[in-house]
Amino acid sequence: MQKVSIIGFDGALASAITGVIDLFRLAGVTWARIHGEQPEPHFTTQLLTRNGDHCRCINGITLVSDGSWEDLDAESADLVIVPTIGAPIDQVLASNPELVTWLGQFSVPNPNSAGQVQLASNCTGAFLLAEAGLLNNKEATTHWGFSDRFRQSYPQVNLNPEKLVTVDGHIACAGGGMAWWDLGVHLIERRAGAQVARELAKAFVIDAGRNSQAPYSALQAKRYHSDSVILKLQSWLEENYGEDINLQSLAAFSGLTTRSLMRRFKVATGETPKSYLQSIRIEAARSHLENSRLPVEDITRLVGYEDVSSFSRLFRKQTGLAPGAYRSRFGR
User: How many H-runs (helices) and E-runs (strands) does the chain carry?
Assistant: First the structure.
């Protein structure tokens, strides 16, 4: 039996604690019960807090801990999960310097972990890992809405907020607040096998195929800036993405030189006009695939591409699925 330790702190998101506990505790159990078989649990769990105190979550619920994280060391820990920060991030970081220091012991992988993920964070829990220096020069993700702030605070981290789950060495991160189920299923697959993870996902009616926050981040997080020229250009792109668009035409529309446009767009949104346009087109393609029976060739042209194979490669890179597979999974 593998032991999963969830770290509790005041201001945590309760569901990111209790939900993860449910997933790991019921892996190999719920599916068996549904089918009248003997349950075969794979994990035990424990909620650990500083000094074993209660954990007062952001929604007002108080959770009773199973002990103190101070009694757990990196060499004896199978898997440690840091949940979402629900309270103001600066407040939680300032209130938990001892936890940040304790997390620092996971800077190198445990030689006894056999190459497994040993430490994981959900959503804004990545701020605690980054504060401890654990994500330096590593790929990570966090909630798309806090990605700009994360980049400013921890520029040495290779942040990839479009991804729902990242794994770099012995550390994993998950994106949005409810991505704990994606993280949980992913880690269960790694530690208990694909069949156990698939059965758990089916039993909990979880879509285990999600791998991107792009639909949420591309058109929303990129608008949290005050550059009116770039905002106007973004609105135009979102209405005219199907047209033949190049950098020169965008510069002419915005009244900027191409060089100024590139610089201001990057400062405002964190990406280039081309990558932003690609995100819009992929999101439009997703909508067509989910809500229509149009052939992929027609969708390709509608969203501004001519070559179906090139579009399909780009779509797969952004979503993790080929257009046909995406439609089979999400089409209505």
Answer: 16, 11
Beta carbons of 303 and 285 less than 8 angstroms apart:
yes
DSSP letters of 106-158? GGS--GGGTT---EEEEGGGHHHHHHTTTTTTSEE---GGGHHHHHHH-TTSE
Q: What is d(CA 143, CA 162) in angstroms, rounded to the nearest whole number?
A: 9
29-58 burial, b at 16+ Cβ within 10 Å, e below that, comes to bbbbeeeeeeeeebbebebbbbebeebbbb
On whether both 9 and 158 belong to a single domain, the answer is yes
Q: Are residues 98 and 44 in the same domain?
A: yes
Distance, in Å, from the CA atom of 247 to the CA atom of 118, rounded to the nearest integer, reads: 45
pLDDT in tens, the chain (332 residues): 899 999 999 999 999 999 999 999 999 998 889 989 999 999 999 999 999 999 999 999 999 999 999 999 888 889 999 999 999 999 999 999 999 999 999 988 877 776 788 999 999 999 999 999 999 999 999 998 888 899 999 999 999 887 888 999 999 999 876 788 888 888 998 888 888 888 888 888 766 555 555 544 545 556 556 788 998 898 899 889 999 999 999 999 999 999 999 999 998 887 899 988 998 898 889 889 988 999 999 999 999 999 999 999 999 888 778 999 888 877 77
Q: How many domains does the chain have?
A: 2
- Rounded Cα distance, 326 and 308, in Å: 15
Q: Please say which residue of 189, 213, 237 terminates a domain.
A: 213
Together in a domain, 197 and 246: no
Instruction: Clarify whether residues 141 and 43 are in a common domain.
Output: yes
283 and 209 co-located in one domain: no
pTM of the model: 0.68
Token pair recorded at residue 243: 């047209």
